[in-house]
Amino acid sequence: MLQIAVTGKPNVGKSSFFNVATLSDVEVADYPFTTIDANRAVAHVATDCPCQDLKVTCQPHNSQCVDGQRLIPVELIDVAGLVPGAYKGRGLGNKFLDELRQARVFIHVIDASGSTDEEGRPVEAGTHNPLDDVEFLEKEINMWMYGILERNWQRLVRKVLSEKLDITKVIHEQLSGTGIRLEAVIEAYRKTNKEYNNWGSEDLIYFISQLLKIAKPMLIVANKADLPTATDNIKNLKENYSNVVPVSAEAELALKRADEAGLIKYKSGNDDFEIWDSKNLNENQKKALEYIRENVLQKYGGTGVQKALNKAIFDLLDMIVVYPVEDDNKLCDQKGNVLPDAFLIPKGSKPREMAYEIHTDIGDKFLHAVDARINRRISSDHELKDGDIISIICR
Fold first, then answer.
1. Number of H helices and number of E strands within the chain?
2. Distances from the Cα of 311 to the Cαs of 46, 47, 221, 339, 389, in angstroms?
3. 10 Å Cβ neighbour count for 38?
4. CA geometry: angle at 109 spanning 107 and 112, to 5°?
5. What span, in angstroms and rounded, lies between the C-alpha atoms of 332 and 339?
6. How far is it, in rounded angstroms, from Cα 313 to Cα 92?
7. Which of 375, 339, 343, 370 is nearest to 53 (CA)?
8. pLDDT bucket at 27, cuts 50 / 70 / 90
């Protein structure tokens, strides 16, 4: 299961975002280090299920289908709040940086209203610049990774030169505990435009910054977007960074609770809700819902929670969804379940690569694949598309 690390400084709404994204009940409080251990839970990314356009009733196994939306599980890791100097061990330090190792993508939750300082302490709204928080976290993660490489760098360089090794493979081995792929190391090395044996500290840090952008991209969640002081800050963030999603975790939580109570009809990701039981809504609740509608849903097109999850997986990691079946005529598995599974795989994947994603044995025994939508055999170098329904034929 793909892992997403939810990170940032204390008291910006990280745990609130985590709670509402996973429907968990993680402790939330307005003081630093409420999260003492990394919490893990399952969230879902959403995409249109093929059952809609194919007019079939699906029986999902590894995912869910709700009103024609296929919900595919991903794991969220709620990492405790980082403070400046964490890579040196300050605050709760490297314990939590280590929790980021296996995550494929980072969701950096910041306080878009500017009402928490660099340590996560409450300050007057609008007095802190959220841009500083983005720079701080990038530095913390870069320097943490730099510490992993730098401590043995000169020895590694001598080894590579004397034994005529491939520097990218050696770096990859050194970073083996971080989940970073060799291809990412090779791509980052190409961007440095300087031979490794001439690298100084700045060159090594630059290489690491490029590597992290490729291997562990970061999405900025501008939380507390409904507060008045957030508007200009979100504009500034979008002018400086391409991956920014305005979010109100509190609004999402309020809407989900009202939906669960039967007071409104709301689905995460929607840009509006429908009141179902106005008789049991008091005036304060009606005003609160109208505030959310006007200052969140209409202003940003939704609360941003589902959009953030989808963007992290589909845009930053460039994943697509494919649906493996055994019977390409009935679109089912051996038990007759229609469209039982949905798999997240990298865009550009080929049928054999998809087979290995399902199971190693299936990949090893792969013969060819059939596009079940058109009942036609496809070549082994065929690039799969989002929403493909594929039958893998094994020997």
1. 15, 14
2. 10, 11, 11, 24, 23
3. 17
4. 140
5. 6
6. 28
7. 339
8. very low
Predicted pLDDT of residue 92: 45
State how far the Cα of 351 lies from the Cα of 355, in Å rounded to an integer.
6
Q: How many CB atoms lie within 10 A of CB 368?
A: 16
Assess contact for 109 and 134: CB atoms under 8 A.
no
- State the Cα angle at 78 between 76 and 79, rounded to 5°: 130
Are 1 and 74 a contacting pair, CB within 8 Å? yes
Predicted confidence at residue 148, as pLDDT, reads 83
Residue type, 15: S
Calculate what percentage of the chain has a pLDDT beyond 70. Answer: 91
What single string gives the DSSP state of each residue in 294-338? IIIIHHHSS-SHHHHHHIIIIIIS-EEEEEEESBTTTTB-TT--B
| CA 3 to centroid of chain Cα atoms | 7
What are 198-210's pLDDT values in tens digits? 999 999 999 999 9
Q: Tens of pLDDT along 293-347?
A: 999 999 999 999 999 999 999 999 999 999 999 999 999 999 999 999 999 999 9
The whole-chain average pLDDT of the chain stands at: 89
* The two three-digit tokens of residue 176, written as one number: 């083996």
Give the type of residue at 297.
L
Return d(Cα 395, Cα 218) in angstroms, integer. 41
Q: Which residue has the tokens 């941003």?
A: 304
Band (pLDDT 50/70/90 cuts) for residue 79 is confident
Distance CA 12, CA 137 (A): 13
How far apart (Å, rounded) are the C-alpha atoms in residues 41 and 186?
A: 33
| Residues 6+ positions from 168 with CB-CB distance below 8 Å | 182, 185, 186, 189
Helix (H) or strand (E) holding 49: none
Cβ(240)–Cβ(131) below 8 Å = yes
Residue-wise pLDDT for 87-104, tens only, equals 565 444 455 556 677 789
Mean pLDDT of the region 115-125: 87
What is the spatial distance between Cα 303 and Cα 246, in angstroms, rounded to a whole number? 8
Residue type for position 318: D
User: Where do the domains of the chain lie, and which CATH numbers do they carry?
Assistant: 320-394 (3.10.20.30)
Residue 225 has pLDDT above 90, yes or no: yes
